[in-house]
Amino acid sequence: MANLHADFKLTLTDNGIPDDSPILEYLDWAGIRTKNSLAMFFASDDKITEWTEKFANKITFGAPEKEIHFPVEERRKGLLACLIATWNVCRDDFTAARQSKLPMTPSPTAPTASATPATSTDDKLPKAWPKGVYQQLLTDYKVSAGNTKTFPEKILLGAEQVVVRMWHEHTVSKNYQAVGLGEIITKRTFTATGSVNSTAKRDKSDKTLVLNPDDHTLVQQEQKDWDPQSMMMILDSLDAIRWAWILIQISNQESVETYIERFIQLTHKNPQRLANVKEAWDTFSWTIAMQMRNNKTFKQATEEILQDPVTIADILSQPPRKKPKSGKGKDKKGKGKGKTKNKYNTWQTNPRYNPYPSQPSNPAAFPPTAPLGNQHYHYGPPPPPPTFVSHQPKGHQKGDKNKGGHKSKTFSKSQK
Question: Does residue 260 have a pLDDT over 50?
């Protein structure tokens, strides 16, 4: 006879598992005897599915050897539905009990029920890990790895606010959001090489305050999502998201690895179309979020995406977006070395070096305009200036011998 807690056994019976089912003795043998233990034993629906599929083969357990076997697939599906319903009840009771034990901060003035709408605790997004949750997740990873590996905490250190939001969406609110490529690596403390992340330090030091239009108070301005540009940054982003999904147990590790590896291959094969790869990631991230809001598992959502190569090829076939390039020497004051040759930076077009206007190749096609007032227009070079000759006596200067209009006669001493 299974030694289960009374309320746990009643919950199993209320959700369709009979008292004589061998699953009750198997739960007792596995140590799952209370509602809280079942709520913590399974992290998600996928874990229950994997756990139930093993009953397709005959399993023996216990000191007096017992057997459990569900060879018919329909019976396994029925068992899976009953276990998922029981697990949801146990998890909701566990969450409500934990929230009731949290200390409540007294408010100075208690608002009336009509003035403030009632808000659920699920809508409040925590900014840090609840007590004991992070340690339990690390323990679960170590157990799933066979106690041979430890979780690489350094990859996500400093980005707890993003990872806690992802965990809260998956385990509490079910209000899934798309995971951006740059969300984690821009906030974590260390880069992939182990050096301190300068981007995270700059974001933390930015304390810009803006006016909140709702209550007219100053609040800190929200930081815009950082977008990775190079291939290495995109690969680092994918690796960080991989470990965040594994930590919060969004699905089994094999499903997460398959989806992330697909995008790593796309990044390596399309180095000239990284913008298209990032667009594909954003598109499929929202697709996964919307499908998981409709009670689909992460494995089902990603399998549908990976089995539809047409959508991926359509996004990757779009022409890459080119950024406008600014050439050196063009419209840059004090920049550039003047190596760019165009019709705007030649010395012939500068009026300082060309005082005379250029003449058209066909003057007849451009008749001269009538002069205005006393203005005179001269075409061609100006006429040469007149020359002036000073009047001097003939034959009285050195070098003027035998020069002049009349020749002078010379007499010798014998003729005088």
Answer: yes
- List the one residue out of 34, 46, 30 whose CA is nearest residue 4: 34
Give the pLDDT mean for 200-226.
Answer: 64
Out of 316, 343, 363, pick the residue that ends a domain.
316
If asked whether residues 55 and 94 sit together in one domain, one would say: yes
In a domain, 376, yes or no: no
Domain of residue 27, residue span:
6-100
Shared-domain flag, residues 138 and 259: yes
Output the CA–CA distances (angstroms, integers) from residue 165 to 101, 122, 226, 244, 300, in the order listed.
21, 12, 18, 11, 22
Rounded-to-integer distance, Cα 174 and Cα 166, Å: 10
Read off the pLDDT of residues 293-310 as tens digits, 9 standing for 90 and up. 998 999 999 999 999 888
Report the candidate in 283, 282, 264 with the shortest Cα–Cα distance to residue 181.
282
| CA pair distance 341, 330, nearest whole angstrom | 10
134 and 279: one domain? yes
